[in-house]
Design brief:
Layout: H1 25-28, H2 39-56, H3 61-91, E1 97-111, E2 115-127, E3 134-146, E4 149-156, E5 159-161, E6 166-179, H4 182-194, E7 197-212, E8 215-230, E9 235-245
Antiparallel strand pairs: 1-2, 1-9, 2-6, 3-4, 3-5, 3-7, 7-8, 8-9
Length: about 250
């Protein structure tokens, strides 16, 4: 027996009953790429085109010339730097020295109290302690002070010294109607009257050039000399102490 509640399957629609619906690309708004379009092929072709353009753009001669000049200049800097270091280590140049072996105080007096007149002579000694190095002194300037008051200043003409050479040169200082503070004049008179001693100091500034073959070096030297003198008219140097720094 066949049960009554089982229904027969519904017939499937025939192909003739199905509706064919076609959607055109214009209706969807989507444009189709061309038939021969391929994204990877397009990128590779662009790279090849760029490479071809770069191959045709050669480096300009002026760029090569500038690069060669920079290379030569760098080599020259390295060469001169090494040569300077070797010469400095081989020669070991020492700083020239400055000293005052003798001095004389010929005249000191006041004209109407605040104005000082004086005559002072220094015997300076410049020495080059190096054995193989020539030294040239330039821009030599010496100043004479009394209790931090500048009395007079002088310049010396440039000169050259051979290795192990010394040079003695007299430098004369004169002050005429130099205005000084009252306390400076009082101190000077007391020193002369009490102990017949006067304290001065000299400052020297020198530009030095050192010659080591083809290599030239330049630097400044600063000297300070403390001096103790007897009173005029036959004032002479009693004690001194000179320090030279670079």
């Amino acid at each position: 027996m066949i049960p009554n509640n089982i229904s027969s399957p519904s017939p499937s629609p025939s192909p003739s009953n199905q509706t064919n619906i076609q959607i055109s690309p214009e209706q969807t708004g989507i444009t189709k790429p061309p038939k021969n379009y391929h994204p990877f092929r397009t990128r590779s072709s662009r790279k090849l085109a760029i490479l071809k353009v770069d191959e045709h753009q050669k480096t300009k001669p002026i760029v090569w010339f500038a690069a060669i000049l920079c290379f030569i200049f760098s080599l020259m800097l390295i060469f001169f730097g090494i040569a300077t270091l070797i010469c400095y280590l081989a020669l070991k140049p020492s700083n020239p020295s400055f000293d005052i072996p003798n001095a004389s105080l010929n005249l000191v007096y006041f004209d109407s109290k605040p104005y000082l007149n004086g005559e002072f002579t220094l015997l300076t000694n410049f020495s080059n302690p190096n054995r193989r190095v020539h030294v040239k002194f330039e821009s030599l300037h010496i100043e004479l002070f009394f209790t931090n008051r500048l009395i007079s200043s002088q310049t010396i003409n440039p000169f050259t010294q051979k290795p192990r050479e010394t040079r003695l040169q007299a430098v004369k200082f004169m002050s005429s109607l130099l205005f000084v503070a009252q306390e400076v004049g009082v101190k000077l008179e007391k020193e002369v009257q009490s102990s017949n001693r006067l304290s001065y100091y000299a400052k020297g500034t020198f530009k030095v050039k050192v010659k080591m073959g083809i290599i030239h070096l330049s630097f400044w030297l600063h000297s300070v000399c403390q001096m103790e003198m007897t009173g005029p008219p036959a004032g002479s140097l009693v004690a001194r102490q000179c320090v030279t720094t670079r």
